[in-house]
Amino acid sequence: MKRAFPVLSILTAILLSYALYQALVVAPTEQTMGDVQRIFYYHVPSAWTAFFLFFINFVASIQYLARANSKTDRLASYLAVGIGVVVFAAAFFIPLPEGMRPSAVGTTGLLATGLYLLVRSLFSQADTDVLALVTAEVGVAFCLIVLVTGPIWARPVWGIWWAPGDIRLTSTLVLWLIYVSYLVLRRFSASGQTPILAAALAVLGALCVPFVYLSIWFFRTQHPQPVMGGSGSIDPRMMHALLINWLAFMCFAFLVCWSRYRLEKLRREVDEVHALESLKDVSRSAR
Known about the structure:
Elements: H1 4-26, H2 40-66, H3 70-90, H4 102-122, H5 125-158, H6 167-188, H7 194-206, H8 208-218, H9 236-286
């Protein structure tokens, strides 16, 4: 796997360059907003990437808590499968907000279940704690990009940097602050219960993600309506540039998470060695 990292890094760099070309050159200029609209190709993919990373953090945190007990682990797995099936079926029978496609909602439910089972098969309980920490760190970085690029777009379009009453903007800021609090807890708490407390905080914080995403459907907001799964429309060349940038961002996020995961695993191994050496020194002194 270590040999694959340089190759994937080169491919990701090429993809990021191609995505930049698509966003700045190939995609047409929006008639109303002009070139400032091109920040859309970085703002939206950053948000989607952050949401995906926060969801992985949620899954890893659930598994860290559940897998402490075999019965709880089995129950959590059954619930994950059951929720996926229920969401898929309900999407076709329960009225959804205008613009939401039942097929998209149902598929999302099944993909979430598949991701839960995939994480469970690839990571041990201890490793899920590492995965949760890493995805939170990278997710916070991408969410910060969202918070920075949003006002840069809003200033020339709305005439203001920030709309305090806008539910989408405010909830995104709250989401970022929750995960910053998560990282502060992980960084500065030395208690043995820190991973458990952090996992519980991550589970609560994850509930904010669907609220942020769905807020523009249920509340009156200045934020533009979604161009995918909503009532908006988009030029096919713009959509192509958007999806290419999202793919590039996801690949970049994967590489950063992979690198950070390996470093965190190594750090914990070193800490364990130091702890064992300290115990040996204490036992020798006692003799």
